[in-house]
Amino acid sequence: MKTEILDIAIPINAETAERAGASLKAIPGVHEVSFLDAPARLYARIDDDAPTRAELVAALNKAGVLVEDARKPHAGGSCCGSCGG
């Protein structure tokens, strides 16, 4: 299992977040979805081998939610963990 962090490009309301979460949960391999409103992002707990980030983003786009590009990894590959990424 891994967590995919999807930063939302434009703030969304609770109803849209619920709809977006439901569209992600309908994808095989997605086990849990949570929403954080500040900053706006969705967290998806998914299987290691599926689905891909592109599949998650496509499902969110269909639900009317725009997602920012994936975060770049830290320069040295190390992580303090404070940003959640």
Your description of this structure?
With 85 residues, this protein is an alpha+beta fold. It has one domain (2-62): Alpha-Beta Plaits (2-Layer Sandwich). The chain is built from 2 helices and 3 strands; from the N terminus they run E-H-E-E-H. It has helices spanning 14-25, 53-62; strands at residues 2-7, 30-37, 40-46. A 3-stranded antiparallel beta sheet has the order 1-3-2, covered by helices on one side. A hairpin with a 2-residue loop joins strand 2 and strand 3. The longest helix has 12 residues, at 14-25. The mean pLDDT is 86.
In short:
By secondary structure, the protein is of the alpha+beta class.
* Count of domains: 1
The number of helical runs is 2
The poorly predicted ranges are none
Beta percentage is: 15-25%
Largest sheet entry? 3 strands, antiparallel
Q: What is the fold named in CATH at topology level?
A: Alpha-Beta Plaits
- CATH architectural label: 2-Layer Sandwich
Strand order in the largest sheet: 1-3-2
Order of helices and strands: EHEEH
Distance, first to last CA? 15 Å
Question: What CATH first level would be assigned?
Answer: Alpha Beta
Mean pLDDT reading: 86
- How many strand segments? 3
Shape, per Cα inertia axes: globular
Helix content: 25-40%
Structural class: alpha+beta
State Rg: 13 Å
